[in-house]
Design goal:
The complex is a heterodimer. Chain A is mainly alpha-helical. Chain A is 75% helix and 2% strand. In chain A, helix 3 runs antiparallel to helix 4 and helix 12 packs parallel to helix 16. The chains are: A mainly alpha, B alpha/beta. The interface between A and B is large, with 54 and 48 residues.
Chain lengths: 513, 454
C-alpha cells in the first residue's frame, strides 16, 4: 500500500514538474474544487448514471495531481468502484505520459488514448502532437486524435477524419472505417451516413493498397533476417564440413557452448561489475563465445576427429555421441536457470514506414552475418593462413610435400569453424533461448543449407541460405509454419534430385571422389 | 573376470558331459541332494511368507513416481518428482499411512513415450506399487493408459490437459479445459477483462493445443463471435522464427480489441514473446493469455518481454493463504536441504501444487478405505476434500477430476504471477466439453465411464 502511495506521489511530482505547460492550462480554468470533490464522492455512488457522469467530469477536468486521492479511494474500494476508478486513473496517467521524456512511453500513451474512446483526450493529443519532435510518436498522436474524431457525432468531422486517416494509411482505423461502411450500406442509412460510407470506402482502399506494399517490404525483411540466421549457423559448418569434409554432428552443440559462454559472461557482469556496465556484457561475450567454442573444437579435433579423418560414417557416430554427452552435461550443470537479457540497445525496433517495423536484434544479426562473410573471405583468400587452408583442401599430399604442416592446418581450420559456431550461438541468444537442446533445433537446417549450396563452396552456402530463408518466409503467410517447413524440405529434396552436388558443384580436377 | 567365469563354466560342464557317464550311485546322490535342496527352499519360502504376513503391518507401502528425469521434459517434470518426494516425506514424518511408512520407487522414463509404458509396467507388475504419481505430456499419459487399465493400477495425473478422457484408473488433479481455457477466454470477453472481440488462437502442433482450440472455437462461435474474428495457427515443436506470425498478429490486432490465446509449448515461448515485444507490440495492444507458462517455466526466461501478459491456472505461488506460505517455504527448504539444483531459488506453480495435493488426497482415501487395494481406494477418493496450498479442493463424486478454483494472473517482472481475477468458488470439472461434446458425460458411479447423456 505504502508503495502505491509512493508511486502516486512520484506521479504527482512528475505531473507538476514535467508538464508545466499543461498544468498551467489546467490551472486557468480550474473548476471549483468542490465540483471535483463531489465527483470523487459520486464515484462510489450506486446509480450507474451518477457514476458515469463523475467519471466523465473527472477525466475532463481533473488531472494527475489528483491521483493520490484516487489511490486512497481505491485502497478500500469494492469491485464496482475499482472499475469506475480505472478509466479515470488511466486517462490521467496517459495524459501525463504524453509529456514523458521517453518516446516509447509517449507513443504508448497516445495509442491507449486513441482506443479509450474518450473524446476529452482529443485536445490533449492535438496539443502534444504540435510539440512532438519524434516522427512516429507524432504520427501515433495524430492518428489517435483522428480515431477519436471518427467516433464523434458530427458527420463533417467524421468525414474529414476518415479521409485524413486514409491519407495517413492508418492500419488502426480499418475496423472503425469498416463499421462506417457497414452502417452506410444498410437500407435505413441516412444521406450523411451514405456520403460518410463513401469517404470511408476510399480511405479503406488507400490503406489496403499501402498494406500490400508494407507486407511485401516486411516479408522481404523477414526473409533476409531468416536467411542471415541460417547463414550464420551454416558458416562454421560450411568450413568444417565443406572444406574439411568432416561431418560434425556436434556442431549444434558448439553453438550451444557459444550461447552458454554468453550466459556465463552475463552472470559475471551481474556479479562483479557495476550495473551501468551491464549492457556491454554482450560485446564482451563475443570473443568469449568464439574462444570457448574454438577451444572446445580444438580439443574435439585432437581427441576424436583426427583419428577418424576420411571415415565419415565413424566421424558422424562419434560426434553424435559427443553431442549427446554435451547436451546432458549442459542440462546437469546449468539446469534450467538460463535467461539471457538482451542489452537494452537491441530491444525494440525502428519504424521506417507506416506499418513497417524492423526489430533491432534482427538488423544486428543481418549486419553480423555480412561481417562474418567478409571476414571469412578475407581470411581464406587474402591471408597466408587461408592460402594454406585452401591448399590442404585441394590437395593434401601435395601441400604436405611443399612443407605445409597439414596436421596443424587441420586443427586450426576445425577450431576456426567451431569458433564460428560459437558466434552463431552468441547471436542466437538474441532471438531464442539458451537451453541444452539449442543446437538440435538448428543442426538440421544448417546441414540443409550447406548441402543445398554445394559442399565446399562458401558462395553456395550464402546463396542457399538466402534462397531457403526467403522461400520459407514467402510461403509461410499462406501455408502456415508447419506446411511451410514441409514444403521447403520437399523442394530441397527435389532440388537435390536434379543436382545431387548442390548449387555450386566442385568441378574439374578438385572434384575428387 | 569374464574369462575366469567362462573357464569355470567350462570345467563344470566337462564333468557332466565327459565320456564318463554318471553311475547309479552318483545319480541317487545327486537327485537326493536336489530333492533336499528343493525341500529346504520350500520350507524357507513358507517361512518367508509367514514372516511377511506377520510383519505386513509394518511393511512400507510402495509408491511409484513416473516423471522424466532426463531428456526434453526433465525441465518441467523434475520439480514434480521433487514435490511428490516432499509430500511423502511429510506423510512419513507424521507416522505414515495406516501405520505404515511410504516408500518411493522413482523411475526415469527419460521423456520417451515408449519408455513410459515400459516403466509403468515395471512399477505395477514388478514393484507392485499401490499408486503411481506421474506423467506430464498428454502423449505420455495416453501411452501408459492401457497398462494402468490392464493391471488395474492407480495414476494421479497432475497437469492441465485437453479433456476428452475418462479413465477408471486415473485421477486428474490438473485442470480440464473448462477449468482453465474456457474461463480464461470468458474473462477476456468480459468488461472487466477488457472486452476483447478478436481472438488469435496460437499453439504448438499437437493434441493439447488442437483440442483446446477446437473447444474454444466452438465456444466463441456459440457466443456469437464472428468466424472472421477468430484466427487459428499452429507451429512445429521447437519453432524459433515467429516473425511472420507476429506480423500477422499485428495486422489482426490493428484497431484494438484483439488478444492472443497461446498454447505454445516449451522452448518456443521465449522466441515468441521476444519477437512480439521487438516488433513493437505491447500487452495493452494485444495481451497474450498463456496456458502453458507457469512460474517454473518463467524461472528460466528473460521476463522483460513477458511482463503484463496473462496466464490462466488454478494456483500461483503468490496465492495469499497461510497454508500456501507454509507450502512454498517447505518446498524451498526441501530443495535446499536435499541439494537439489537451484536450492531455495526454486518456485512452486500449478502442476507442482496439483502433484502435491494428489499425494495427500490419495493418503486420505487410503485411510478412509483402510486398505491400499485399488478398487477400495478409488471409491474412497470420490468426494475427498483437501485444504490444498491454493485453497480447499474437492475430488468429484464420479468423474475422477478435481473441483478447483480458476485464477487469471498477470506476469510480473520478478517471474511471479499476480492474481487479477478469480472464479467464485470451485469450478466443476467437465472432461467432455459442453461445446464440442454436449451429449457425452463421464461417470464411474452411475455409469461405466463415458456415457451418452439422456
Amino acid at each position: 500500500m505504502k508503495s502505491v502511495i509512493g508511486i502516486g506521489v512520484i506521479a504527482w511530482c512528475l505531473g507538476y514538474c514535467v508538464m508545466g505547460g499543461l498544468a498551467a492550462e489546467a490551472q486557468m480554468n480550474v473548476p471549483p474544487s468542490s465540483q471535483l470533490e463531489q465527483a470523487l464522492v459520486d464515484l462510489s455512488s450506486e446509480t450507474e448514471g451518477t457514476r458515469d457522469q463523475a467519471v466523465r467530469l473527472l477525466i475532463e477536468q481533473g488531472d494527475a495531481a489528483l491521483l493520490p486521492r484516487l489511490e486512497e479511494l481505491r485502497a478500500n474500494a469494492d469491485r464496482s468502484l475499482r472499475m469506475a476508478i480505472k478509466p479515470v486513473a488511466d486517462a490521467w496517467r496517459h495524459r501525463m505520459n504524453l509529456a514523458s521524456p521517453d518516446a516509447d512511453t509517449r507513443r504508448s500513451a497516445a495509442t491507449d488514448l486513441g482506443t479509450s474512446g474518450r473524446p476529452a483526450a482529443i485536445p490533449w493529443l492535438e496539443a502534444a502532437a504540435v510539440n512532438e519532435s519524434h516522427r512516429w510518436v507524432r504520427y501515433a498522436m495524430e492518428e489517435s486524435a483522428l480515431l477519436l474524431h471518427l467516433a464523434s457525432d458530427n458527420p463533417t468531422v467524421k468525414q474529414q477524419a476518415a479521409s485524413k486517416l486514409g491519407d495517413m494509411r492508418s492500419q488502426n482505423a480499418v475496423p472503425a472505417l469498416k463499421e462506417l461502411v457497414q452502417a452506410g450500406s444498410e437500407a435505413t442509412a441516412s444521406e450523411p451516413q451514405k456520403t460518410l460510407a463513401q469517404a470511408a470506402t476510399i480511405a479503406i482502399e488507400r490503406i489496403e493498397s499501402w498494406n500490400v506494399w508494407s507486407s511485401a517490404i516486411e516479408t522481404l525483411f523477414r526473409g533476409i533476417s531468416l536467411s542471415s540466421i541460417l547463414l550464420i549457423m551454416s558458416l562454421g559448418l560450411a568450413i568444417v564440413f565443406g572444406l574439411m569434409g568432416v561431418i560434425n554432428m556436434a556442431h549444434g552443440e558448439l553453438m550451444m557452448i557459444g550461447a552458454y559462454a554468453t550466459f556465463v559472461i552475463q552472470e559475471c557482469f551481474k556479479l562483479y561489475f557495476p550495473e551501468s556496465w551491464f549492457d556491454s556484457y554482450y560485446l564482451a561475450a563475443l570473443p568469449a563465445s568464439f574462444l570457448a567454442a574454438a577451444l572446445f573444437g580444438l580439443i574435439l579435433e585432437a581427441t576424436v576427429i583426427r583419428f577418424l579423418y576420411g571415415r565419415p560414417l565413424e566421424t558422424m557416430l562419434a560426434t553424435w555421441g559427443v553431442s549427446l554427452i554435451l547436451i546432458q552435461g549442459a542440462r546437469m550443470y546449468f539446469g534450467d536457470l538460463t535467461a539471457i537479457t538482451a542489452p537494452s540497445w537491441l530491444n525494440g525496433g525502428a519504424q521506417v514506414l507506416v506499418g513497417v517495423f524492423l526489430p533491432f536484434n534482427r538488423l544486428f544479426i543481418i549486419g553480423l552475418s555480412i561481417l562474418s562473410v567478409i571476414g571469412i573471405y578475407a581470411l581464406l583468400f587474402r591471408s597466408s593462413i587461408g592460402l594454406r587452408v585452401r591448399a590442404v583442401t585441394q590437395n593434401r599430399s601435395m601441400s604436405a610435400c611443399l612443407g605445409i604442416p597439414t596436421r596443424k592446418v587441420d586443427a586450426y581450420t576445425f577450431a576456426f569453424g567451431s569458433g564460428l559456431a560459437g558466434i552463431a550461438g552468441w547471436a542466437l541468444t538474441l532471438v531464442g533461448n539458451v537451453e541444452p537442446g539449442l543446437g538440435q533445433n538448428y543442426i538440421v537446417d544448417s546441414f540443409m543449407v550447406v548441402v543445398t549450396g554445394g559442399v565446399g563452396k562458401l558462395a553456395g552456402t550464402i546463396i542457399a541460405s538466402l534462397g531457403i530463408g526467403g522461400l520459407n518466409k514467402l510461403m509461410e503467410p499462406s501455408l502456415g509454419a508447419v506446411y511451410g517447413k514441409v514444403l521447403i524440405l520437399v523442394l530441397v529434396i527435389l532440388f537435390l534430385q536434379r543436382r545431387p552436388s548442390g548449387l555450386f558443384a566442385v568441378k574439374g580436377r578438385h572434384a575428387e571422389g | 573376470m569374464n574369462e575366469q567365469n567362462a573357464h569355470g563354466d567350462d570345467t563344470k560342464i566337462s564333468t557332466i558331459t565327459d565320456e564318463h557317464l554318471p553311475s547309479r550311485r552318483d545319480f541317487l546322490r545327486q537327485s537326493s541332494r536336489t530333492a533336499a535342496g528343493i525341500g529346504i527352499a520350500a520350507i524357507l519360502g513358507n517361512l518367508g511368507t509367514w514372516a511377511l504376513s506377520l510383519g505386513a503391518d509394518n511393511e512400507p507401502i510402495k509408491v511409484g513416481v513416473l516423471h522424466s528425469l532426463s531428456g526434453t521434459m526433465a525441465i518441467s517434470e523434475v520439480s514434480l518428482k521433487d514435490v511428490v518426494s516432499m509430500a511423502v516425506q511429510e506423510i512419513n514424518a507424521k507416522g505414515g499411512v495406516l501405520g505404515r511408512q511410504l516408500k518411493l520407487v522413482v523411475v526415469d522414463p527419460a521423456s520417451n513415450w515408449d519408455l513410459f509404458a515400459e516403466k509403468a509396467k515395471q512399477l505395477l507388475v514388478q514393484e507392485k506399487v499401490a499408486v503411481v504419481f506421474g506423467c506430464w505430456t498428454s502423449v505420455s499419459r495416453k501411452s501408459v493408459l492401457p497398462i494402468f487399465e490392464e493391471h488395474n493400477g492407480l495414476l494421479f495425473y497432475p497437469v492441465q490437459y485437453e479433456g476428452e478422457e475418462c479413465s477408471k484408473n486415473v485421477f486428474y488433479t490438473g485442470a480440464a479445459v473448462n477449468q482453465q481455457a474456457v474461463p480464461a477466454v470468458e474473462y477476456l470477453m468480459s468488461k472487466e477483462g477488457g472486452g476483447y472481440k478478436k481472438f488469435y488462437l496460437l499453439g504448438t502442433d499437437y493434441v493439447y493445443p488442437k483440442t483446446t482450440n477446437k473447444i474454444l472455437r466452438a465456444m466463441l462461435l456459440a457466443k456469437k463471435v464472428p468466424a472472421a474474428n477468430i484466427m487459428e495457427e499452429y507451429t512445429p515443436f521447437h519453432h524459433q522464427d515467429y516473425q511472420t506470425i507476429v506480423g500477422k498478429i499485428k495486422k489482426f490486432a490493428a484497431g484494438g480489441g484483439a488478444c492472443v490465446i497461446s498454447t505454445i509449448n516449451g522452448d518456443s515461448n521465449v522466441p515468441f514473446y521476444k519477437e512480439f515485444a521487438n516488433q513493437g507490440l505491447r500487452a495493452e495492444d494485444a495481451p497474450i493469455m498463456a496456458f502453458s507458462v507457469a512460474e517454473d517455466e518463467l524461472r528460466g526466461m528473460d521476463k522483460t518481454a513477458l511482463v503484463g501478459h496473462l496466464a490462466a491456472w488454478n494456483y500461483y505461488q503468490s496465492v495469499d493463504t497461510p497454508q500456501n506460505k507454509q507450502f512454498v517455504a517447505n518446498f524451498k527448504a526441501y530443495c535446499k536441504k536435499n541439494n537439489l539444483p537451484d536450492g531455495d531459488k526454486r518456485v512452486t506453480d500449478d502442476p507442482i501444487e496439483a502433484a502435491y495435493f494428489g499425494v495427500h488426497v490419495w493418503k486420505q482415501a487410503v485411510e478412509k478405505a483402510g486398505t491400499t487395494e485399488v478398487n477400495a481406494v478409488r471409491k474412497a477418493v470420490y468426494g475427498q476434500k483437501f485444504l490444498a496450498p491454493g485453497g480447499e479442493i474437492m475430488m468429484d463424486e464420479a468423474n475422477h477430476h478435481t473441483h478447483k478454483p480458476v485464477l487469471i494472473g498477470e506476469i510480473m517482472k520478478d517471474g511471479q504471477i499476480k492474481v487479477v481475477w478469480r472464479s467464485k468458488g470451485l469450478v466443476k470439472p467437465e472432461p467432455w466439453s459442453e461445446y464440442t461434446n454436449p451429449e457425452k458425460g463421464c461417470d464411474w458411479v452411475q455409469h461405466q465411464g463415458t456415457y451418452k447423456k439422456a
